[in-house]
Amino acid sequence: MAANEVLLNVVDLVKHFPIMKGVLIQKQVGAVHAVDGVSFDIVKGETLGLVGESGCGKSTTGRAILQLHRPTSGSVFYEGKDLVKLKGETLRKTRRRMQMIFQDPYASLNPRMTVGQIITEPMLIHDMTTQKDTQGHAERLLKLVGLNPAYTSRYPHEFSGGQRQRIGIARALALEPALIVCDEPISALDVSIQAQVVNLLEDLQAKLGLTYLFIAHDLSMVRHISDRVAVMYLGIIVELTTRDELYSHALHPYTQALLSAVPIPDPAIEANRKRIILTGDVPSPVNPPSGCRFRTRCPIAAEICKQKKPEFREVTPGHWVACHMV
Amino acid sequence: MTIQVSHPSTGQTQAHIADLTNMSVKPRSLWMDAWSRLIKNRASVVGMVVIVAFTLLALFASVLAPHNPLQINDGKGFLPPTWIEVGSNGKASDPAFFFGTDTLGRDVLSRTLYGARVSMTVGFLPTFIVIIIGTIVGLFAGYRGGRIDNLLMRLTDVFYAFPDLLFFIIVMVTLRQTYIGQLLNGLFLLFSALAVVGWVSFARIVRGQTLSLKEKEFIEAARCMGATDTRIMYRHILPNALSPVIILTAISIPGYIITEAILGYLGLGLIPSTNPNDFFITSWGASMLEGQTAINAQPWLLLAPAIAVSLVVLAFTFLGDGLRDALDPRLQGTQ
C-alpha cells in the first residue's frame, strides 16, 4: 500500500465548535471537541472506511476535509496543496476534485429544481459546459448511475429514496472528482436498496478510478466496501488498518467491543459467543476525559490511561493503534 | 402506471436497475402541484375572478364609466339609484345614473369605478416594493447570520414597534403640503409610508425560512460544488422560501386597501382631483367620507364604495386562504 500514490493526507485535523454565551457581547464559554487531532492518508483508488458511533465526529471529519466546516487547526493536503490555507476562488477550484454524497436523499436535493438542473449545476458553475449542452450531460450522467435518461425534466419528489441517492451520486460525479466523501450514503435507505447503491458505488469506482472516504456506522457494509478501515471514538481515530487485519486482529479494546456487537446469523454460534458489552455512555465532547478518551468505558484501563494520552503508533506494518495496553 | 421489470441477465442489471417504474405522468414541479390544488379551491377561484374583474375595471375605468366622474350636473344632485323610483328626498331617479348622483350631481357609478384604480394600485404597488425590500433584508440577515443578522433584525424590531396607523396619519398630516406630499395626488407619500412599515413582516418571514433552509443538505451540496453565496441565496434558498411570502402577500394586500380607505375617509389619502386627465381622480375612502354626510338623502353614495371595498378585501382573503392551503398542504385547515 505504501508504494502507492497518496491522494489525500490529513494531518492533525482539529475541529472545535465554540459554545457562545451572552446576549449582546458574546463570549466563548467552551467548545465541542468534535474532531480532535485526526491524521490519516488516503491512497489513490482505495476505499477508506470511517466507522464509529453517532456523535464521534465522523461526518465532521468528512466535512472538515472538504472545508465545508473550516478546521480549527491541522492540514489537509490534496495533491500537495493544503486546503486549509486556500480561500475563495482557489479553494472552489481545487475542491472541484473532491465531492460528497450525502446521507439524507430527501434533504440533499433542491425540491424546486429539475433533476437535469440539479446534476448539471456543478458543471455550469465550473464552466465545464454551456447552457445548451446541459441536456446531453444530464442524460449521460443519469445513464452512468443507472437511471433512465428521460428523467431529466423530473423533480426530486417524483423519485424514491434509492433513486434520489443515485441522483445525488450523479451530481457528485458531474465534476469528475478524484475523491468522493460518502457521508453515510446508505444509512437512510431500505435494506433492499442499500446493496444496490453500494454495488453502484463499487462499479463506479472500478469504471472511473474513484477514491472513497466511506463514512458509516454499519460494520458489515464497511467490511464489504472498504480496503482499509479507521475506527473513531470521541473525535480521535483509535485504530486504523486494512480491512482483513481489523476484522481478524482488532487490537484496540473499543474496536473489539464494536466488532463483538455485530450479530452472527447463526443461532448456535450466536448463543455461545462472548460479547464485550461496554458500560456507560459516550462522555460529552464538550469536556472529554483526560489521557485516553476511551478509558472511562475501557475494560482494561489502567492508571497510565488517565495520565497520558496514548500515542497513535504503528504496531505492525500498516496497523495503527492508539492504546497504552497494546 | 406500468411496471417495467429490468432484465435479470447480469449484463443488464446495471443499466436500468433503479428504473423499475416507468413514469408515464408528466413531470410536475411543486409550483404546478400547488397551482392545481389552488384551482380546486372554489373560494379562491371566486376570489381570483373578483380580483381580476376589479383590476380590469380599474384599468379601463375611462372606457367603462358611463359618465365623466367629474361632470357636475346642475339640479341633479342626490338622485336616488335607478331601482328606487322616488328617493327619501323626494327626487325621482334617472336611468342614466345607476347608483344615483352625489351632492353636485356627479355619477356615483363612474366615481366608484375610478375609485377602484386607487384601491387596486394601493393593493399591488406598495406590496411589490415591500416584498423586494423585505426579501433582500431577510435573505441577507438569515444567510449571513452573526452581526449583520443582529443589526438588521434589531432595525426590523424598531420598525415593527411603530403604531402603523398613527404613523401613517402623522406622515400624511405633516408632509401633505410639501412637494412629496403632492406627488401622484398624495399617493406617492401614502405608498412610501406603507412600504416603510410593511417590509418588516416580510423580512422576518424570509429570515426565518432562510435560517432553517441554510442548514439543509442541498445547501451544503451547493457549497461543496463551488456555488457562490449569491448563487446559493437566489437559486437555492429564495425559491424554497417563497411559499410563505406569497401567502403573506395575499394576506397583507387587503390590509393596505383598508388602510388606504381609512386614510381616505379621514381625508388624508388621495387628494381628490378636479383634472379629468389625472389617472387617479377619487378613491373609495374619499367617496365614503362624502357619502356619510348624505346617508339619509342618498345612502348609495356611501354604500357603493363600501360594498366595493368589502368585495375586494374578501376576495383577497379567500385567495390568501386558498394559497396557504395550496402551498403548504400540511397547514390545511389551520389558521
Could you characterize the architecture of this molecule?
The complex is a heterodimer of chains A (326) and B (335). Chain A has 326 residues and is α/β, with parallel strands linked by helices. Chain A has an eight-stranded mixed β-sheet with strand order 6-7-8-3-9-10-12-11, with helices on both faces. A four-stranded antiparallel β-sheet of chain A has the order 2-1-4-5. In chain A, strand 4 and strand 5 form a beta hairpin. The longest helix of chain A has 18 residues. The relative contact order of chain A is 0.14. Chain B is mainly α and 335 residues long. Chain B has one domain: MetI-like fold. Chain B has 13 helices and no strands. Chain B is elongated. At the A-B interface, helix 2, helix 3, helix 5 and helix 6 of A face helix 10 and helix 11 of B.
Question: Largest sheet of chain B at a glance?
Answer: none
In what range is the share of β-strand residues of chain A? Answer: 25-35%
Mean pLDDT of chain B, nearest integer? 84
CATH architecture level-2 label of chain B:
Orthogonal Bundle
Average predicted confidence as pLDDT of chain A: 89
- Look at the helices and sheets of chain B and give the structural class: mainly alpha
Q: Enumerate the spans of chain B where pLDDT stays under 50 for 5 or more consecutive residues.
A: 1-20
Q: How helical, in percent, are the residues of chain A?
A: 25-40%
What is the CATH class designation of chain B?
Mainly Alpha
Largest interface: A-B, 46 and 29 residues
* SSE ordering of chain B: HHHHHHHHHHHHH
- Total number of domains of chain B: 1
Oligomer category: heterodimer
- Coarse morphology of chain A: globular
